[in-house]
TrEMBL record:
Its main location: other. This is Extracellular solute-binding protein. PANTHER family: ARABINOSE-BINDING PROTEIN-RELATED, SN-GLYCEROL-3-PHOSPHATE-BINDING PERIPLASMIC PROTEIN UGPB. It is found in: Cell envelope. The lineage of its organism: Bacteria, Bacillati, Actinomycetota, Actinomycetes, Kitasatosporales.
């Protein structure tokens, strides 16, 4: 959460960490089917869960009616709120405590210095829920190491939060063997006992099926790409630049806007936007990297448009229109937003959360600054072909050893943390206690230092409401973000493996690990397109074709994702 507003557009690692002032790369990946490679209880560590059986597993969906958003979801977008926050008018979504006073230990990643366990935020949340939640916060940067050690032991906390990017190695098999089936408490109409959980979109619950059972409590996300090509609208308006609608127009604009002697360049590394403009599916979420083309299952790196996207990005670097920091690779380690705000370059791609973050950061020191999201264009000037991201990527799991009382207390926690924007429960979960953690200035909640240190990285990890964007201090940004998602959502399609929670065979899962570095070397001119073609050929012979057959079997046995 940002200090002055709430943006819950479904964090991948990138967007979640962006909201906590840490920058890293987005990852995740996986759907809901019964085992393609062994039954749910067979101990199989590969495959997915059958969509045919999902209807017996999934919770019933009951849309929330406590709060009505200002902008409804459309084309897979988040819902939006554009009004000032009226604390006196906050709704109540949890009229009575569902917790029974038990203790629940939760292990979760934390970025920064975790607060002491008796702080006022934790105390207020536990009192509202009726559960004594004891946090075992772990360093988010080394969380995968801690996870491996804990899950290999017999001492597993009651609840463990696992982001999708930490689900490598033996973690997926541990999820199946170590964590409880929540179906007896949530499947079908049972979820209605927890109304805020019932309002979580079905796609997010589908992603929470592991080993044939509903094991995860999800943090839902919008399925529209989270990577926005940003531009300096104030400078565009001043210079009279038109928004490009094709790859050629972008190149022409970039050359016109660049003046190296004046220390102004057109753009940053546009690789991610290039992949979207050329119709290349995501490479960060492995199952989504496969698409059916001409009746054949094809991996993204085998597509002609993949090479075309790399070549176009390479030409931007070669033309000298890319800021030198990106050529040196500094953008991988530092936040480029500072030099974007200084006007050193006019266009770059970043997570959708940066729209608000940079606007708020520059509001007082640089009042003329205006960042806006450029619509993704089709490379040839036509409509783009975009691919959906996964509907959830962070999950909370309950130990198989947990008693029914602990499971129900955990669900009581999740029912509060999944409360929608505009409710008392949401405000406490995301902002803490008024006067202690935040104040309200002209209808805008503003965290103080205590709030910024204490109200982070905790309860929001247990479960979250449907994707929501709300910035009462910059309503135009919230409106812009949601409407951008709606426009891009109109061109977004679900790949065959959308929503699937898939565990690849361990012997084949790392085959494409070196592709991203090779991509970066190619666009910077250190390697050639032919090097990628050779890498793909090697990939195929070393197991890529076998992986294709493995995925083909999943589709043949389970069918593609709906929609």
């Amino acid at each position: 959460m940002t200090p002055n507003a709430s943006t819950s557009s479904g964090p991948s690692r990138r967007s979640f960490l962006a909201s906590t002032a840490v920058a890293t790369a987005a990852v995740a990946g996986g759907v809901p089917l019964l085992a393609a490679c062994g039954g749910a209880e067979s101990g199989s560590r590969e495959g997915t869960t059958s969509g045919k059986d999902a209807k017996d597993i999934l919770p019933a969906f009951v849309a929330g009616s406590v709060v009505t958003p200002d902008i409804a979801s459309k084309n897979g977008s988040a819902v939006g709120f554009t009004g000032k926050l009226d604390l006196a008018g906050l709704k109540t979504s949890v009229p009575k405590k569902l917790g029974k006073g038990g203790k629940v230990t939760v292990m979760a990643p934390f970025w920064g210095s975790p607060p002491k366990g008796d702080n006022a935020y934790y105390t207020a949340m536990n009192d509202l829920i009726g559960v004594d939640v004891a946090w075992q916060n772990q360093d988010g940067n080394t969380y995968d190491q801690k996870l491996g050690a804990v899950l290999a032991s017999s001492d597993v906390p009651d609840v463990v939060v696992i982001p999708g990017w930490n689900m490598g190695g033996k973690i997926p098999s541990a999820i199946t063997s170590k964590f409880a089936d929540l179906g007896p408490y949530l499947s079908g109409d049972k979820v209605k006992e927890y109304p805020n959980l019932a309002a979580i979109p079905t796609d997010a619950w589908q992603r929470s099926i592991f080993g044939g059972k509903l094991r995860g409590l999800p943090m839902p996300s919008s399925y529209v790409t989270n990577i926005v090509p940003y531009y300096r609208k104030d400078i565009f308006d001043e210079e009279g630049y038109d928004i490009p609608t094709s790859a050629d127009e972008f190149m022409a604009l970039a050359k016109d806007a660049t003046n190296a002697k004046a220390k102004r360049w057109a753009c940053g590394d546009m690789k991610w936007t290039a992949f979207n403009a050329f119709g290349v599916p995501s490479g960060q979420e492995k199952p989504l990297g496969w698409i059916e083309e001409g009746g054949k299952l094809v991996y993204r790196a085998e597509l002609e448009q993949y090479l075309e996207a790399l070549e176009w990005t390479r030409k931007l670097f070669a033309a000298g229109v890319v800021h030198p920091d990106f050529k040196l690779g500094k953008s991988q380690a530092t936040d480029p937003g500072t030099k974007f705000a200084a006007g050193e370059f006019l266009i770059y791609n970043n997570d959708i959360s940066s729209w608000y973050g940079l606007t708020a950061a520059q509001a007082t020191q640089n009042p003329d600054f205006e960042i806006w999201g450029m619509d993704i264009f089709g490379h040839d000037g036509g409509d783009p072909t975009l691919y959906a991201t996964q509907p959830a990527n962070i999950f909370a799991f309950v130990s198989k050893k947990a008693s029914e009382a602990v499971i129900r207390d955990t669900l009581a926690v999740a029912n509060v943390t999944a409360a929608p924007y505009g409710t008392k429960e949401f405000m406490l979960t995301n902002y803490g206690v008024e006067g202690t953690h935040y104040g309200v200035e002209d209808g805008v909640p503003v965290k103080n230092d205590t709030g910024n240190n204490h109200v982070v990285n905790a309860y929001v990890m247990v479960a979250s409401p449907a994707p929501t964007i709300a910035h009462p201090d910059f309503a135009n940004v919230a409106k812009g973000q949601v409407e951008w998602q709606q426009r891009m959502g109109a061109f977004t399609r679900k790949s065959s493996f959308y929503g699937m929670q898939i565990t690849e065979p361990s012997r084949l899962t790392s085959l494409s690990n070196d592709f991203e570095q090779l991509e970066d070397d190619i666009v910077r001119g250190h390697k050639k397109i032919g090097d990628m073609q050779q890498a793909v050929s090697d990939w195929k012979s070393k197991g890529g074709d076998k992986l294709r057959d493995w995925y083909r079997k999943i589709l043949d046995e389970n069918g593609p994702a709906a929609g």
